[in-house]
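Sequence dictates fold. Below is an illustrative record:

_____
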Amino acid sequence: MDFPDRQHLCAPGLLVIDITAADEATAHAAMATLDRLWATSGPRPVHRTPGQAGVQARLYVDLHRRPDEDTALQDLVQEIRG
C-alpha cells in the first residue's frame, strides 16, 4: 500500500491502519470491531495484490472521537456471546 496522505495524519490522534487478513470476511470483521471502538472511515474496499497472500484494506481512525461507549460495549458483548 502507498504511504498515507499528510491530510490523514495532520494531527495527534489520527491513525491510518493497513489491514492484511486471510480473507475478506476477516478483514471486514476487523474493520467493524475498530469502528465500534473509535470513529473510523467505516467499511472500506478490500483488495488483493497479485503474488501476495491474503487481502488488504486501509482504515482511517480518529482516536479523539468515540462512538457511544455503552452501545459499543453492549454490541461487543452481544457478538462474543453469539
In short: The radius of gyration is 14 Å.
